[in-house]
Amino acid sequence: MQISFTLNGRPTTVDVEPASLVAELLREQLHLTGTHIGCDTSQCGACVVHLDGLPVKSCTLLAPALDGATLLTIEGLQGAPGSNLMHPMQEAFREHHGLQCGFCTPGMLMTAVALAAEKPDLTEADVRHGLEGNICRCTGYQNIVVSVLAGAAAMNAAKGD
Amino acid sequence: MSNVIGIGASPKRKEDQRFLTGRGNYVSDIKRPGMTAGVFVRSPHGHAVLRGIDKAAALASPGVIAVLAGEDTAADKLGSLPCGWGISDAKGVPMKEPPFPMLAQGKVRFVGDMVAFVIAETPEQANAGAELLKIDYEVLPSVVGVLEAVRPGAPQLFDDVPNNICCDWELGDKAAVETAFRKAAHVAKLSLVNNRLIGNPMEPRAAIAEYEPGTDRFTLWTTSQFPHVVRFLMGALVLNIPQHKLRVVAPDVGGGFGVKQFHYGEEAVITWAAKRVKRPVKWVASRSEGYVSDRHGRDHVTEAELALDENGKFLAFRVNTLANMGGYLSTFGPNIPTNLYGPLLGGVYTTPAIYCNVKVVFTNTVPVDAYRGAGRPEATFVLERIVDVAASEMGIDRVEIRRRNMIPKEAYPYQTPVLVQYDCGDPMGCLDGALVAADVKDFGVRKAASASKGKFRGLGYSTYVEACGLAPSRFAGRLGARGGLYESATVRVHPTGQVTVMIGTHNHGQGHETTFAQIVSDKLGVAFENVDIVFGDTDRVQFGMGTYGSRSLVVGGAALSKATDKVIAKGKKIASHLLEAAEVDIHFESGKFSVAGTDRMKTFEEIAGAAYVPHNYPLEVLEPGLEEQAYYDPVNFTYPGGCHIAEVEVDPETGTVTLVNYTAVDDVGTVINPMIVEGQLHGGIVQGVGQALFENAVYDEGSGQLLSGSLMDYCMPRADHLPMMKVATHSTLCTHTPMGVKGCGEVGTIGSPAAVINAVVDALSHLGVTHVDMPATPNRIWRLLQNASLPVAAE
């Protein structure tokens, strides 16, 4: 079946198998391999994308659900629209060593951006609770939590400008 | 030069840009023209006779290209998956080494054992074809636990391995230990289980293989920590592909932790199949598939006894362990619970006599091999637990008993009674630092505050040492290693002065692209951004043994340092000619070759340019070009260690253990990049905390089914399980590595399980609890509290 949606700011029309998953569509058909698949039980969160502004696990979302929607993937995450700058959350992860092997990182970033957007005054406890659905095996989470707090502060500061 | 970033700085990582923007290049991201999809059909039984496979319906299924099974590998005379270590018992009798076929032949020996490989146009078609395969099994009873496996009458995995014992290994002076025990004022005893773990790197394993008929060359892309070793083991010993006809690429790899440092049968099957179907073949494991095929870790049952004199001085230590090997010998399997375990039982103490017996046992479970720490966490756990038991029984403070037995800083180098000689260390310094950092003096106040909320608070110590920087080849060879454990690096200076390094270690999260660039930047005075590190491709990198055992900086970094020194030495020769001065008068510093006592100099870039434009060049004594290679084989292991202090709170109502504080002061030698070292310590500690509190691989005894077979059943540490940890270093410099480095990848995982469990036991000690097996889950603690002799109220 044919579906149309906005992908990282661009109108996109694709033919999809009705039973295919968004993560597969992105990776196999659209060549956007930044969205990762780390499990088969919706536990790891490596596949998180934003559907109409909300974080979702794309490994459990059927592709037809995208029809008419707006989808943001890690490849579309950026600073000012149209710029080559990284998003403040990406900068914060780099600054605070919030990643090691990089595999969970896209999902972590997408979850983190959504968390920060939802609650401007995030606490450490909020971040730890909000990252419950994203597993990282490398960092022990400490620098991820530090990064998310810093990234959220930078997002707030940017809003204030 | 202003952009030189040297040793001790924390530049942001070079590798981050691609990972932060979703542009990493993992195996599952790669597509090849004409690529097919493969799925493995795995045994659903723990133990069964494989009577036959009917491929007809699968082969007739839409899109299916081929179905391969054990009989096909036998027809092609393919080898067995090799074991890299051959250990022996006390009499010198070699271990039992049954064949490990890549696709099962005659029998399956664990749930997940590979039976067939189905190749189709798409993954969906391959899966559909696999469903149609008719496999005739005669199911046999399984045995999954080591205690059960060695009992008379237990199911036997191999006809020629009586009692399922692969090797009855020992180390140490048994008679001296017995003598010491007879004289002891006190003997502490402890029985414990070191729980089976599943590594769970976030990227599942994957592989793609391609065969080019025009050149008769194979390429394998694989999620590996050591591509050159895969090329050697698979090419030379399994598939009979000449080394120069086989390229193995391990691109970005999403975490390893040991799980990806073995040669897996999947790699061999896919490479062999690619030539048979004449098209590229891709396989990506699902997480569930990883649970029953990624090599597992730990799984020991141990009885330990510590003999002490009346002052709490350790006289002798005796350890008897049954170690689970699973259904076959994996690449490093038998080495882990023996050579990487027994020699660590001395710890940071002066125990004069140690004896260790390890029975290495086959069971109907996934093969067990190295997992972060590998043998050393198990040894540390036994030792640091029994020290606490002894302290409690003798009424000696836990810190005090450690102090009384610690090797003083001045006593290094220190020869232990179990083979290893520590070159340097300061365990007392680490302990003192940690006591302050953890604010131990005010623990009583915090404990009282917890009690007022009805919670039990406990404090636990682990003062430990490990052996890493694997490994001195000569030493490893004596212990049964079948290969060398050196590392190699090439430093290629381009005509414009930029540098490309080819190194045989593999970066899968450790930040090598940054740390190694710092070493080159520091030594050559070249800008940090002008150094790139190449790894993970046997066509681009000369050779290498890969990354495991905290060896990359220790062994690989040493090779890199050596190669860089050779570049400087050649640069001096060039400079001597260009500056018309004697070579001994040329000094190299901060990127400049200068003549001593003069202002005559050439920059590094000028020397690099001259090396490639040899117009005015001493061709009779020097070759053009500026590229040097070095191999480095360490003279000893390195011995990082430290002191970890865990603080937990137990809720007696639910049995939940909450880790509330964690402090680590570690001696990792010279720190090249403090930011990266801290990240390694955080991650390592949490993997150990995972073992102590959450993770457990559980099998059903009769059927051999893995009950903890998904992320929903196997509890991984998550962000809200953890407090902010305090980590610091207190370093003594390794005396035999070029930069004084010791390695930091595994220390966290080695030190932490004992600290956490010692804290849990401390929290419950007023109830008469003397030991808690890992993981200390709410269920386990709650049951313990129900059975405790005292009321559970905190007051």
From TrEMBL, chain B:
Does the record bear Oxidoreductase in its keywords? yes
Please state what the protein is called.
Xanthine dehydrogenase family protein molybdopterin-binding subunit
Organism (species): Bradyrhizobium zhengyangense
Pfam families xrefs: Ald_Xan_dh_C, MoCoBD_1, MoCoBD_2
SUPFAM superfamilies recorded: CO dehydrogenase molybdoprotein N-domain-like, Molybdenum cofactor-binding domain
Q: Where is the Aldehyde oxidase/xanthine dehydrogenase a/b hammerhead domain?
A: 21-141
Q: Which domain of life is it from?
A: Bacteria
Entry keyword set: Molybdenum, Oxidoreductase
